[in-house]
Input
Amino acid sequence: MIVVVILGLLAAIAIPRYLRASKKSKISEAGTILKQIFVASMEYYEANGCYPPEVDDIFGEGEDDLPDCFI
Output
Protein backbone atom coordinates (compact mmCIF):
# COMPACT_ATOMS: atom_id res chain seq x y z
CA MET A 1 0.00 0.00 0.00
CA ILE A 2 2.85 2.38 0.80
CA VAL A 3 4.40 1.67 -2.60
CA VAL A 4 1.16 2.70 -4.33
CA VAL A 5 1.04 5.95 -2.37
CA ILE A 6 4.68 6.73 -3.23
CA LEU A 7 4.04 6.01 -6.92
CA GLY A 8 0.98 8.26 -6.81
CA LEU A 9 2.99 11.11 -5.30
CA LEU A 10 5.76 10.70 -7.86
CA ALA A 11 3.21 10.72 -10.68
CA ALA A 12 1.54 13.82 -9.23
CA ILE A 13 4.89 15.61 -9.36
CA ALA A 14 6.17 14.24 -12.67
CA ILE A 15 3.09 14.62 -14.89
CA PRO A 16 2.71 18.43 -14.56
CA ARG A 17 6.44 18.90 -15.18
CA TYR A 18 6.25 16.73 -18.29
CA LEU A 19 3.26 18.67 -19.60
CA ARG A 20 5.06 21.99 -19.05
CA ALA A 21 8.17 20.74 -20.86
CA SER A 22 6.02 19.45 -23.72
CA LYS A 23 4.25 22.80 -24.02
CA LYS A 24 7.56 24.68 -24.03
CA SER A 25 8.92 22.50 -26.83
CA LYS A 26 5.79 23.03 -28.94
CA ILE A 27 6.04 26.80 -28.47
CA SER A 28 9.70 26.71 -29.47
CA GLU A 29 8.90 24.61 -32.56
CA ALA A 30 6.15 27.05 -33.57
CA GLY A 31 8.62 29.93 -33.30
CA THR A 32 11.06 28.10 -35.55
CA ILE A 33 8.37 27.43 -38.15
CA LEU A 34 7.24 31.06 -38.10
CA LYS A 35 10.83 32.18 -38.60
CA GLN A 36 11.14 29.85 -41.62
CA ILE A 37 7.96 31.33 -43.11
CA PHE A 38 9.23 34.86 -42.47
CA VAL A 39 12.60 34.19 -44.13
CA ALA A 40 10.94 32.50 -47.11
CA SER A 41 8.50 35.43 -47.43
CA MET A 42 11.34 37.92 -47.43
CA GLU A 43 13.18 35.93 -50.13
CA TYR A 44 9.97 35.84 -52.18
CA TYR A 45 9.58 39.61 -51.72
CA GLU A 46 13.14 40.25 -52.87
CA ALA A 47 12.64 38.06 -55.93
CA ASN A 48 9.13 39.26 -56.92
CA GLY A 49 8.69 42.72 -55.38
CA CYS A 50 5.60 41.72 -53.39
CA TYR A 51 4.69 39.37 -50.58
CA PRO A 52 3.15 36.00 -51.45
CA PRO A 53 -0.61 35.72 -50.93
CA GLU A 54 -0.34 32.07 -49.75
CA VAL A 55 2.29 29.73 -48.30
CA ASP A 56 2.01 27.58 -51.45
CA ASP A 57 3.40 30.52 -53.42
CA ILE A 58 6.51 30.53 -51.24
CA PHE A 59 7.38 26.85 -51.39
CA GLY A 60 5.43 25.57 -54.39
CA GLU A 61 2.48 23.24 -54.67
CA GLY A 62 2.17 20.19 -52.45
CA GLU A 63 4.10 18.93 -49.48
CA ASP A 64 6.77 17.33 -51.67
CA ASP A 65 8.09 20.77 -52.61
CA LEU A 66 8.56 21.91 -49.00
CA PRO A 67 12.15 22.13 -47.76
CA ASP A 68 13.25 19.18 -45.64
CA CYS A 69 13.64 21.38 -42.56
CA PHE A 70 10.09 22.75 -42.91
CA ILE A 71 7.58 20.80 -40.83
Q: What stands out?
A: Residues 2-65 form one domain. DSSP finds two helices and no strands in the chain. The helical segments are 2-48, 55-59. The chain has a mean pLDDT of 81.
